[in-house]
Amino acid sequence: MAQMIKAMQASRNLELHVLPTFSGAFLWHTMYPWPQRPAGLVELGFQELAKHWLPLLDKAGEYGIDLAYEIHPGEDLHDGVTFERFLAATGNHPRVHILYDPSHFVLQCLDYIGYLDCYQDHIKAFHVKDAEYHPSPRSGVYGGYQDWKDRPGRFRSTGDGQVDFKRIFSKLTQNGYTGWAVLEWECCIKDSIQGAREGAEYIRGMLIDVPTRAFDDFAGGVQDIETKYRILGLQT
How far apart are CA 230 and CA 236, in angstroms? Predict the structure, then answer.
C-alpha cells in the first residue's frame, strides 16, 4: 500500500492523472470451471479484492489520480466481465478504470475492437502491443506449457502480429481518448532494439490529428430558414 501511495504522489508531482496497475489475483487459479467452484466463491473473491483496493482508490481520489487496471490473464481482472464484477464490488468507485492492451485479448479470442465501445468511458491508458493467434491441432489458448515461440498464441513486435491498430487508433480517437499510446514490446522472434526503433515509428504513423471542421463543411450551403423550407418544398 505504501508503494502505491508513493506512486500516486509521484504521478501528481509529474502532473499525471492516470496510474496503471494490476489488480492482483485471489481467483485466477480457479479460472477453469472444473472442479466446480463452491457457490459464492467468485462473489467472495471480488468482495475481498475490492476491500483491499478501496482504501487505495479513496487515496487516489484525494490525489486526483485514476487507477487504470491492466486487463491481463493471470490477474482477476482479465476481461470485460471480470472488470464489471470488480467495479460493482467497489460500489462503482469513480477511480476504477482500464489500461487497454489488445494483445491480451487476441490471445483470449476476445473482440478487442468492440471492447473499445463497451468500456470507452473507462479506458484511460493504452499499451500498443501486438500478438497473433494461429489455431493448431495440437495446442490452444492455454499453450500446452510450451515456450513462447511454439505457442499458437504469442506476442509479437508491434506491426508484426494480427492486431488491427488502424481500427484501434481510429476508434479511440472517435471515442475521445486523449491519453498516452505507450509502446510495450514482447517478441520471441525479433530483437528488442529493432522492435523499439520500428515500434516508435509505427506509433508515430498511427497518431491522428483531430479535424477542426467537418470534411464536408463546404457543401453545407446557406443556413437561413427560407432556404430550408424551400428544400422541403414548403412555403414560409
Answer: 8
Cβ pair 71, 98 in contact under 8 A: yes
Tell me how far apart the alpha carbons of residues 78 and 213 are, in angstroms, rounded to a whole number.
Answer: 39
Question: Burial level of 233, CB count in 10 A (0-12/13-18/19+)?
Answer: exposed
Nearby residues of 196 by Cβ (< 8 Å), 6 or more positions away: 183, 185
Cis peptide leading into 35, omega within 30 of 0? yes
The residue ranges of every structural domain in the chain are 2-231
Handedness of CA 133, 138, 140, 142 (dihedral sign): negative
Half-sphere exposure of 195 (CA within 13 A, CB side): 19
Which residues are within 8 A (CB) of 153 and not within 5 positions of it... i.e. 6 or more apart?
106, 107, 131, 132, 133, 134, 141, 143
CATH homologous superfamily of 2-231: Divalent-metal-dependent TIM barrel enzymes (3.20.20.150)
pTM flag (> 0.90): yes
Residue partners of 74: CB distance under 8 A and separation at least 6: 25, 28
Task: Look at residues 137, 139, 176 and name the one whose alpha carbon lies nearest to residue 154.
Answer: 139
Question: Which cell goes with 68?
Answer: 487504470
37-69 pLDDT per residue, tens: 999 999 999 999 999 999 999 999 999 999 999
Q: Is 163 helix (H, G, I), strand (E, B) or coil?
A: coil
Q: Which of 115, 120, 130 is nearest to 164 (CA)?
A: 130
